[in-house]
Amino acid sequence: MNSDIFLPSQVAWATGALAGGPLIRKTTRLTDLPGIFADGEAWRRGNPQQSVYDVDVLGSPAGEGALCVGVTHLHTGNVGDEFFMTRGHFHARREQGEVYFGLRGVGLLLLQTEAGDARLEEVTAGSVHIIPPFTAHRLINTGKETLSSLAVWPVIAGHDYAALAEGFALRVFTSGQGFEVRHG
Ligand code: PA5
Ligand code: NI
């Protein structure tokens, strides 16, 4: 008998859907993102209840060394000409890194050091992104479907949103069928 074999949680690679465990979902709506998009007027004109992204986190591990697993589903859309994106954060514990995996859709991972140096990585199904310590991170959906990305991070990392009150050094806007990167 194999009745004592543990059945783990599952991620559906094609969609990022998590199943088989206690899940906590947090939805971030347009109304939750004041001051995040460059065009404040366009943000005010939008539907405040529109979901910009959902984050599903498995379980609630605690303590030094414990890891969190979550999937971000960043919907397609824009505010003015700027693509939908996550709020973005440093880890409160700056020395803690994180790994992102692209599952579905296309987009960009914006990384920024404490000195303000920013760079972009292309996110596609199967891409692997190692977010170094001391590096802020934000997902941007440049595609026409939901961008889903799996993340693994130390539970002690925490989130520091306030340190980015001035915004990131780069922004990404629609341009024809593609995108354009602008500074500031
Ligand atoms: O741990 C992470 O970096 C992700 O799970 C993010 O928290 C998620 O993508 C949502 O972004 P933010 O926390 O910047 O709103
Ligand atoms: Ni993070």
Main attributes?
isomerase, binds nickel (II) ion, three-stranded antiparallel β-sheet, Jelly Rolls, single chain, mainly beta, 184 residues, binds 5-phosphoarabinonic acid, 15 strands, EC 5.3.1.9
Shape: globular
Number of strands: 15
Number of H- or I-type helical stretches: 1
CATH architecture: Sandwich
pLDDT averaged over residues? 96
Share of helix, binned: under 10%
Q: Can you identify the CATH class?
A: Mainly Beta
Number of domains: 1
**Which strands sit side by side, in order, in the main sheet?**
3-4-5-13-8-11
The CATH H-level homologous superfamily? Jelly Rolls
Strand content: 35-45%
- What ligand molecules are bound, each kind once? 5-phosphoarabinonic acid, nickel (II) ion
Pfam families: GPI
Domain Glucose-6-phosphate isomerase prokaryote: 29-177
Pathway: Carbohydrate degradation; glycolysis; D-glyceraldehyde 3-phosphate and glycerone phosphate from D-glucose: step 2/4
GO molecular function, one term: isomerase activity
Concise description?
It contains one helix and 15 strands. The chain is mostly beta strands and 184 residues long. It has a six-stranded antiparallel sheet with strand order 3-4-5-13-8-11, with no helix packed on it.
Ordered list of secondary-structure elements with their pairings:
Layout: E1 10-11, E2 18-19, E3 23-29, H1 40-45, E4 51-58, E5 67-74, E6 78-79, E7 82-83, E8 98-104, E9 107-113, E10 118-123, E11 128-131, E12 135-141, E13 147-154, E14 170-175, E15 178-183
Antiparallel strand pairs: 1-2, 3-4, 4-5, 5-13, 6-7, 8-11, 8-13, 9-10, 9-12, 14-15
The structure holds 5-phosphoarabinonic acid (PA5) and nickel (II) ion.
